[in-house]
Every structure is written in structure tokens, then in C-alpha cells.
Design goal:
about 350 residues, alpha/beta, ten-stranded mixed β-sheet, 13 helices
Amino acid sequence: MDHPADLRLVFWETTSACNLACRHCRRTATEPTEDELGTAEARDLIDQIAGVGKPVLVFSGGEPLLRRDLWDLLDHARQRGLPTAVATNGTRVTAEVATRLKEAGVHRVSVSLDGADALTHDAFRGQPGSFAAALAGLARLRAAGVPSQINVSVARHNRDQLPDLYARAKAVGAVALHLFLVVPVGCGVEMQEDDRLDPAETEAVLNWLADHHGDPALAVKATCAPQYERILRQRHGPSVLRRGGLDATTRGCLAGSAVCFVSARGQVFPCGYLPQAAGDLRHEQFATIWRSSPLFRALRSPDRLGGACGACGFRRVCGGCRARAYAKTGDPLAEEPCCAHGQAAMAG
């Protein structure tokens, strides 16, 4: 049985331009991509998404606050009934920007903190002062009444700082903490393998996160780590379905089945870390790509997964990270290479 095409989130790379140079970024450049979607094309994209459903439209980047028509596009999305979010590095969130985000009806703004201190964060983000600027941005969002989320790209540089980052997220009034397990794509390929978490370390980080699952003061989630769904069920059994908003249909990797990513030039991908295009909006309609793309249809079929993922009893609730499988093998349906459970099962 395939997973339904239940569109929940669309991440739109509003621009590839960015004022930082992060070590893990899926992009290798910080300048605007040539021939990015213009205002009219972007408004049409929003119209097409609204024609498929009412997913959360995440204005991402690059740095979305560098896009001059951002406010017009946020307003257009609101008029079309789409809930919106903005993913920013936080450094450009002035008091005026925070107020405008509130007035635009943005449901949530995510800000990246990749270290619990300036030394760690600034080194990873490639810009001295970016930690202090992100904290200042978070304070301005809180003052304006805009809900914030902390995103943390987890690797060996900050794995031991997670308790401090958890405390920091609570201290700044964030409503959620999302851990992103680095995928070797873009600049992430250049990260030394020794800097990335191995399967055992990944398991330890996700178990730490599971310790905090269900905290009413701070919602926690793992991204690019679908093993988390398996860990929750192993640890809590059926009771986990009544905690933290999970249900029996929750699946770890949502790429192509509940999530998609639209690039600055209008190409549609399963997610921002899986660089295999499912279609191009300059040649096809969004609805056609979402409903009929052979790539998306394949990703919605757990029984087509290979290796340890295909043999795993948790394949319907986990599914393995399809982006990490693609980065390792060139096949998005191959086994997840960073899963201790799968490796142990194959060895046994």
C-alpha cells in the first residue's frame, strides 16, 4: 500500500542569495541564482499550490528576507488561504521586520542556531557576530508576538551542546526545537566525514530528543532523521501516538509524499536535500507534478525501498532518509546509510 499524496508542507527557495556561508548548506554559492522566479511567476506558484490544497508554505532560501517582494508574496499567500512560515538565519530581523511579519500573519518564523555559544555557531555559519544577531532577531520576534522555532543542524561540532540549546530555545520563548541531521549535499559534501554523525551517534542524539518528546512547553522534532519515528515507537509503544501530535499514519521521511521543495528557478524536488527534480514549473503545472511525477509516486511506495530499509519492519513509519540514500548511492530508494537499526538487522 502506498502512502497518500497528502500535501502538508511546501518549502519554496525564494532566493538562493544569502548573507552567510554555512558549512552544511545544500547550496555551494551565496549569490542569487540566474533567472529566479519573478514576482508574477511567484504569485502564480502560490495560486497553483492553493489549487492543490492548503499546505503550510515555507518561505525559505538562501535568506528570504533578501527578497524585495517578500511582503507582497506573503500577502498574496494569505489572500489565497495558505498558512505561511518564514525560515531565516535571523540576522536581518529588525524590529520593523518583526512587526511586518506579525502584520503579514506569518504563523511561525524559524531561526537557525547551530551552536549554544557564539564561537561554535559563528564558525559553522561562516560569519562572526551571526550568533548575537540571531539572538537579537529572536528577541524582536518575541516582542512582536511572532511564534519562533529554533532549527539546529546537528553534527559533531554541537552534539554535546544539545542540552544547552534546548535550554536556550526555552529561554528565548521558542515554541519548537527542530534538529536537522546534516545531509551530505551542497556544502555538506565538503564537510569531512569525521565531522558528521555516524549511525551510533545518530541513534544517541535521537534517543536524547525522545527523552523530551511530549514536553508541553517546547515541541521537539527530528528532520532528515526518520529513524526518530521508529525510536519513539520502540520506546513508548502505542502511547506515543497520543503524545506530541503523532498518529498511526505518521511517517519519518515525508519527501514526495507530504513535502516538496520548489527551487528559486521553479524546479520541484522531493525535498531540499534530494537534488533529483520531479518537474519544472516553467513547463508543467504544480498539480500535475505533485500528483503524477514518477519520482514522487515511487517515493510514496514503501515496498519499493531497497536494502535494509526494504526489509525493515518500520519502513512504513520511518522509510529512511531518501536524501541521504541518494547522496550515498545515487538511488533515492536505496537503504538509509546512517541507521544503526538497519545495519544491525542486516548484520544479524
